[in-house]
Design goal:
By secondary structure, the protein is α/β, with parallel strands linked by helices. About 25% of the residues lie in helices and about 30% in strands.
């Protein structure tokens, strides 16, 4: 699991009628969500404990939750549901997630989640610690609130919910960007409506992923501080296909985190079910072979020549910079396809991508800039050369060649 974020436990503390937010750690330090986060998690463990003080009651409640959580995990794994000594459980528990809690002067009431180290717990339960994971999927969560979409442009409650989610038990290998650098530019709500495979291949390659998952939530607030309805959609792929949709509701704004956490778990269950049934799979177009890849050449007649005969050397390649007007993703894909189809072009790579502006490509070409310009013009492109670069755009019906001066009068 490679969700690149830090685990934050949001805890609601009700004491003397005042709601506070805490971050709670217990036992061994909680493992941050990442590649090494492998644990069995049991959620919904309810405890109600009284003791001489609030702190003693909470410690006793966590201890009881460990015991009850292990019994629940043991039954779930088919190991009979037997208990373990507290000393052994202290070594097995990697963290406790506070889902809800109320603390009084001598009483502790809570619903907790218990995480057990996968390798150690599996050896005691007699089960395998390994399980099949999916190929890496880029996670692109989108939250609609106030009529506007939000992805990685800034922090949101939906992103925080995915950061809290423990995907160690999921068969989906999620890759969640940190939201820094170019993330906000490359991964936004507009991106999911651009099905061009060339652009998606370039984006997915930057994150080391094979395909994209798009969980969406539309938040509807009935009135300030009042009930919230969340309408969730589990989407996937460059074509933004809908896999599942559902709605959840909470009675007040303070329970927004609970609403989103429940939505994340249900969307993950939908993705896991689709993966096991074969519905969720990598788009073949995203695995297409790079058209610039050169297959191993078959032996030619030159191989039959005497060894003292010297054949012509391979034509050296020149690296050229090509600027292209890319108003849409389709225009960007078309420019790459045109360049790669020109004889002598060995490779085309993206230097910068600017939809609605000027994108820059680096072209490896067996020839000079003048020859490449001629080839592009023959294919219907308007070309301007200068400063060691070519600038191209699709020639429209009324577009004059760029080199024609303002005064077009014909002289004899």
């Amino acid at each position: 699991m490679r969700i690149r974020s830090t685990l934050v436990l949001s805890v609601t503390l009700c004491l003397a009628g005042i709601a506070l937010l805490l971050t709670v750690l217990v036992g061994a330090p909680l493992v941050a969500q990442g590649g090494g986060n492998t644990s069995f998690e049991v959620s919904g463990v309810a405890v109600d404990v009284s003791a001489s003080s609030a702190e003693a009651a909470r410690q006793a409640g966590w201890r009881l939750a460990q015991r009850k959580g292990w019994v629940m995990l043991s039954r779930r794994m088919g190991a009979g549901g037997g208990g373990l000594p507290d000393g052994v459980l202290d070594q097995l528990v990697s963290g406790i997630v506070v889902e809800r809690e109320q603390i009084g002067p001598t009483r502790y009431i809570a619903t907790l989640g218990i995480r057990f180290d996968r390798a150690r717990a599996a050896s005691i339960l007699g089960v395998s610690a390994a399980f099949t994971r999916s190929p890496p999927f880029l996670l692109l969560p989108i939250e609609w609130t106030g009529g506007a979409p939000l992805a990685f442009e800034r922090k949101s409650a939906w992103l925080d919910a995915w950061a809290r989610f423990n995907a160690g038990n999921s068969t989906i290998d999620y890759v969640r960007p940190a939201g820094t650098g170019p993330d906000a530019l490359l991964l936004n709500a507009g991106q999911i409506n651009r099905p061009g495979r060339g652009q998606w291949r370039a984006t997915l390659a930057q994150y080391g992923t094979s395909d994209v998952l798009i969980p969406i939530v539309h938040l509807e607030r009935q009135w300030p501080g009042g009930p919230i309805i969340g309408r969730f959609q589990a989407r996937y792929g460059p074509d933004n296909r809908l896999l599942d949709s559902f709605a959840l509701r909470v009675s007040n704004a303070d329970a927004l985190g609970v609403l989103l956490d429940a939505g994340v778990k249900r969307i993950d269950a939908a993705y896991q079910s689709a993966l096991s049934s074969g519905v969720l799979r990598i788009d073949p177009a995203l695995l297409a072979r790079d058209p610039t890849a050169v297959e191993e050449a078959a032996p030619t007649d030159d191989a039959l020549l005497p060894p003292d005969v010297i054949t012509s050397a391979e034509v050296p390649a020149t690296t050229l910079t090509v600027q292209v007007e890319t108003p849409t993703a389709g225009a960007f894909d078309a420019s790459q396809a045109t360049l790669r189809a020109i004889p002598g072009v060995r490779a085309v790579s993206i230097t910068s991508l600017a939809l609605g502006g000027i994108s820059v490509l680096r072209v490896s070409y067996e020839g000079d800039a003048a020859t490449l310009r001629t080839a592009l013009e023959a294919r219907g492109w308007a070309v301007i050369s200068g400063n060691g670069a070519l600038r191209i755009q699709r020639r429209g019906p009324n577009l004059s060649p760029p080199d024609v001066p303002a005064d077009n009068s014909i002289t004899g």
